[in-house]
Amino acid sequence: ETLRYAHVGAEGDIQTRFAAEAAEAIEAATDGEVSLQVFPASQLGNVAEMVDGVRMGSIQMGHHDFASLARIVPEMAVFNAPFIYRDGAHALAATDPETSPALQALNAELVENGGMRVIGRIYRGARHISSNFEIDEPADMEGKPFRAVPLDLWISMIKGMGATPTPVEVSELPTALMTGLVVGQENPLTMISANKLYEVQSHVAMTGHMQSVLAVFVNDDAWQGLEEDQREAITAALDEKAAQSLEWAQASEADLVDELTEAGMTFTTAETGLDLESFRTGVLAQIEADFPEYGEYIEQIMAVE
Amino acid sequence: MGLILILVFLALFVTGFPVVYAILLPAIGYIAIEGLPLGLLAQRVTYALDSFPLVAVPIFIFVGNLMNLSGITDRIFRFADTAVGRVPGGLAQVNIFSSLIFSGMSGAALADVGGLGKIEIEAMKKRGFEAPFSAAVTAASAVVGPIFPPSIPLIVYGSVTSVSIIQLLIAGIVPALICIALLMTTAAVIAIRANMPRAARWPSPREVGASLLPALPALLAPVLMIAGMMAGLFTPTEAAAVTAAYVVVISGAVYRELTWSHLWQAMALTLRSTSAILVIVAAAALFGWILAVEQVPQDFSKLILQISDDPVALLLIANLIFFVAGMFLDSTTATLLVVPVIAPPLVLAGVDPVHLGIVVIFNLMLGLLTPPMGLSLFLVASIARISLRALLKALLPFYLPLLATLAIITFADELVLWLPSLLR
Amino acid sequence: MLRQGLQVICTVLLGALVTVPLLQVVMRDLFGAPLIGAEELTRFLLICTVFLAYPLVVAGRENIVMAELREALPDRLRRALHRLIGLAALAGCGLMAWVALGSIIDNPGNATPTLKIPFWLFLGAACAGFGGAALVHLRQALSRRPTPTETGAAADSHSVSL
Ligand code: NA
Ligand code: NA
């Protein structure tokens, strides 16, 4: 059995390494009975098309932000919500398809409404804010144009930070930052480095406002078409890779801070006076106002050990 | 299977099936044979057009139609003709040089052809140039559009390979200038040999000034666009829309030559040109999806890369691969499918990724000028209302300066990397 | 009549396609209040415009084609080829329209992320565009009138023929 596995990650990103290594691990774990043909870098289409492709079955597997599944189950975006995880390990525990009550409830809806299910996850690092000036508190961002991923959740979050959410496509982001169309953006350090945003941005505020966890999803018909022991082997392989992705991300974050500092970026942290608490308060208040339906899931997520 | 698909496409294409069906029919056959969900057909062609940069194409086609119908073109060319009409080649030189100026506001070759190209061809025909020569000059000079910044293909390349986009954009400036110089030389040689029309004498400063004034609002458009984009006021696609609004206001309020009938006519023309071109882009996306699943570009590249690991030899091979890819695929599809496979081994072998980006994009832009899938050829021939054969014949001498530019770009990497190195 | 109506709809869509990015520039740069979802709306307009205008392309025989070899064929063979291409185009467009309709029925709830524009509008445009094109191809196949390329009038239309 060969499954087509698509994702949008570029060469050098943690998610690209994850997909390549997961394909090897799954082939080994199933004695070659199941193999993945990985299509990175949007080869089989952009995010929306990839999700629709998995739903339809033209692609069997893929991974992306949980929020990309919100087009089928709107509450899935809750796993991308800012300031709900204590750290990376908590984020992985709270998105474990085997044990997370919130994910299990929403996964059932995903199977029901979209014919697809989440079977694994990837930890891709914490998201931080980069900008053309120093940021210590939300007031520093007040009324300034910041790039928002064009999804409701991000727009709400950027608003909660006090800035003006401005939609910019990821391919236009470096140019938009260079010309000043937007003065800042937020992403994991791995993305800031891979896309050379240090050429157009001077500061990074280490807010860690979001833990970037990506969902690994599969077409449910294709999934049910596998043998029980094959499914177990795949789940176990993905779980092991998820734990490894956390190690990769944590190891690389320290290196990336050094690398980006060398490239000329200035980091602000809680130690240098970054007011994390006012970010947390502002953002959570805005999210609560805009997404009251997330409440019960956020409680469940926060309760996970 | 991938090879069969390509052969069927070529067979249908050659026997006179409209391009969109020559692509669509084998793709439908593949999906039926492989038992893939039929919904993929509808999904892929729809999502292919779900692209903000593509929006610039109809808007620039519209701007071109509108400028033509409302008399702005004539003013620009009266000025240009007065200023440099005495240079051998006359309006052909103006055509080429204005492409350089236009490329400062446009990131896509097809937008150059659809907007400026229409104006240029009409004006040259009015001045007594033969339609095929006018079309050939337009098509050849449009290659510069995505090399000189801004450039949508270079931005796509940069995001696929994680190469610095600023470095890529700046690296394009010198190659674009070289290309323009070689094209102008070629046009001058052809014009002198064929004794083509040029102005009888050089203009007086007074005459230049008198023709400049009516053209000034129109000439200011690209300047405003470049300044606006540099200042972060708008993206390239938004710049297209701003240009459209500017043209409507200028021709309506300043020149007072715009009528509702002009507007309606320009819209109708734009609709049909846009749809004819973009349904092919949609169908090509489906075809590209299947080729990717069949691993055709990947297998092909691996085969080639077994031959050598010398950077110069690999660059020559890359030239070949991307020239061929450009013949069959649109530049975005080719960039997305082939670059991720070719670039890593080349970079490992020591090729500078910025240098490679310029080489790749220049090749893909040449692909717009080569059959069978030369979208630029189709568009220019359609605008000039000439046959493809006539266009290709007139275009033949212009492949020489274009290929010479490619050779310079390929071998003189320090020339390409000189400007970006100032920023490193 | 039908053609005029389609022309009007497409023109309105094209007008909006130019206006929305313009409005975005004004709102963002002059008022500091960017419109959320403007890019999404523009892309939506592009998709609808391209597909809905496609029957106009077919009706005007403006599809891009390399017809050199075909037109050089002996008369009977050429006419047979014309018929074959017409029928293949009819079948292809018909299938595309049918598939688009099927996709609408399969996923009625699908929508764009920000503005929640229902996908059936995109797919509906594709369905109507290919469906309309199929009807035009059918009419062209039934009509006894020679095609423009046959009468040598190609230079007057927008189509590229060798
Ligand atoms: Na030109
Ligand atoms: Na080509």
Task: Spell out the key features of this protein.
heterotrimer, A: 305 residues, alpha/beta, two-stranded parallel ribbon, 9 strands, 21% strand, globular, B: 424 residues, mainly alpha, 79% helix, binds sodium ion, transmembrane (chain C), cell membrane (chain C), transmembrane transporter activity (chain C)
Structural notes for this entry:
The complex is a heterotrimer of chains A (305), B (424) and C (162). Chain A is an alpha/beta fold and 305 residues long. Chain A has helices at 14-29, 47-56, 88-94, 101-114, 152-160, 173-179, 189-194, 220-224, 228-262, 276-290, 295-303; strands at 2-6, 35-39, 61-65, 116-131, 145-148, 164-167, 184-188, 203-219, 266-268. In chain A, strands 1, 2, 3, 4, 7, 8 and 9 form a 7-stranded mixed beta sheet that branches. In chain A, strands 5-6 form a two-stranded parallel sheet. Chain B has helices spanning 2-14, 19-34, 39-48, 56-69, 72-84, 91-103, 109-126, 131-142, 152-161, 165-171, 173-194, 205-230, 236-254, 260-293, 296-305, 311-328, 331-348, 353-367, 375-384, 388-411, 413-423. Chain B has one domain (2-421). Chain C is 72% helix and 0% strand. Chain C has helices spanning 2-31, 38-52, 54-59, 68-72, 75-106, 119-142, 148-151. The longest helix of chain C is centred in the middle third of the chain and has 32 residues, at 75-106. Chain A binds chain C through residues 48, 52, 55-56, 70-71, 113, 143, 145, 150-152, 155, 164-167, 169, and chain C through 28, 32-34, 36-40, 106-107, 109-114. The structure holds sodium ion (2 copies). One sodium ion is lined by residues 95-96, 98-99, 116, 120, 138, 141-142 of chain B. One sodium ion binds next to helix 6, helix 7 and helix 8 of chain B.
